[in-house]
Structures are given as structure tokens and as C-alpha cells.
Amino acid sequence: MTEELDAETLAFAHRMFDLARDGATAELADYVDAGLPVNLTNDKGDTLLILAAYHAHPDTVAALLDRGADHSRTNDRGQTALAAAVFRSSTGAVRALLAAGADPDHGSPSAVDTAGFFDLPQMLALLRPESGPTTD
């Protein structure tokens, strides 16, 4: 059963997703601290964390993780926040996600797959430190 949301509630939800996209860390954190579900998900399965990671906002990623955001969630296309951060080459977001326990092999494509497909050796080195430094 799907409940219909009123226009005001939908507008608020869209604003929260915009805060994640824009990297409005303090404002978004205040809403989460006040009760906004940290794993709020849009109609494409994107969480606040996935959007913050995709838009390369490491401080927002860290704040959401600190508030319990689930780094293992995938969107409707099977993508994780870690894969999104790798795609955007956001070193800070990748490090925060890895420190929180994000799995580089989770998702489809995974973060490792993303780094390989887009030829991002610096990102692959973060994901697989045992592979050693890369030279360009």
C-alpha cells in the first residue's frame, strides 16, 4: 500500500535531497538531528548519502555517516555511495566511506568496477591499498 504525500511534504523531501546535492552539511545535519530519517530515499532509490557522495561533498558524507547513514544501501541501479564517490574522484568522500566500513566490491557496478571502467588509478589505490602506489 502506497500512501500519497501532500505537496508540502513532497516539497520538503525534495529540499532535503537538494541540501545533500548542494553539500549544505550543517543544515542537513540539523534536520537529521531533529528527526529526519538519515536514510531518506528518493524515487530512484538514491539516499541522502548517495547524493552527497555523487556530488562530491565529503563533509556532508561524513556528517551523514556520523548520524548512522547506511553506506551499504544501493539505489535502483545497484550503485552505492562509494561507487558514486569514486566516479566523482572525491578522495575525502571515499576515505570517509571506507573508514565507515563501506565494501569496495558491493553494488553493481561496484566501486572497484567503477574505478577500473573509468580508468581512475588513484581511486583504485584508495580502494585496494595492497595494490601499491600507481604511476602516471
Automatic annotation (TrEMBL):
Keywords, alphabetical: ANK repeat, Repeat
UniProt superkingdom: Bacteria
Entry-linked Pfam families: Ank_2
UniProt keyword annotation of Repeat present: yes
Gene3D superfamilies linked to this entry: Ankyrin repeat-containing domain
Residue spans of the ANK repeats: 44-76, 77-109
Keyword flag Repeat: yes
PANTHER family: ANKYRIN REPEAT DOMAIN-CONTAINING PROTEIN 39-RELATED
Protein known as: Uncharacterized protein
Organism: Micromonospora echinaurantiaca
Lineage: Bacteria, Bacillati, Actinomycetota, Actinomycetes, Micromonosporales
